[in-house]
Amino acid sequence: MVACNEELEIANCLQALERARQYFYQHQSQTKNIDIEILVVLDSCTDRTLEIIKTYNVSMISCTYRCVGQTRDLGIRYLIEQGCDWICCTDADSRVSLDWFTSMLKHQPTHVICGVVEIAEWQHLSDATRQDYLSHYQDRTGHRHIHGANLCFRASSYLALGGFKAMPCHEDVDLVKRAEKIGLHISWSNQLRVITSSRLNSRVDEGFSRFLRVIEQENLHEYSSESALRKIV
What we know:
With 233 residues, the chain is an alpha/beta fold. It is built from eight helices and eight strands. Helix 5 crosses helix 8. The chain is globular, with a radius of gyration of 19 Å.
């Protein structure tokens, strides 16, 4: 997980990961030799994110890249050097499901798993935006959505692909497209689930927050235009 000034969100994220880790250990007695290490990569944090992380049983490294692709790559290569052979990516403003880790075993063998996301809250968004999003999103097996907040892969596959590129956004899409190009097996699953923030501003200019923001702005503009027309009439 990468984090840049996520003091408001990261505690919920880490708690969800720890619950999922303990659930895995409790329900996968036949896989006692599997250890799960949670790594946070702090990128240019200036708030209380580091202080909060220190209260959890997780590993941590830091950088000043201000580039999500480069930061993800740093963390993944660190884990691979530690002997990790399966990598699971999420974001600091997201909460993985309780069975997140156990669901990954059900999809083996595979090279890559692309999971789905649920919106955490809709209250600050218009009904039109909610409807537009839900009509667009394919919450089903065989979907074609790609989220850095819910993306997993073999370490060997990651190395074969050359890793995440140093991109400020869409590094996840770029990696999966390259995996498709060379014929890796990709599981498009809605069993791997993550609840993600619906905030309209984030550290990444072109990411999921911008996608929601554009939909909301378009709907608000349409509503304002209709209201103005009714007043004229």
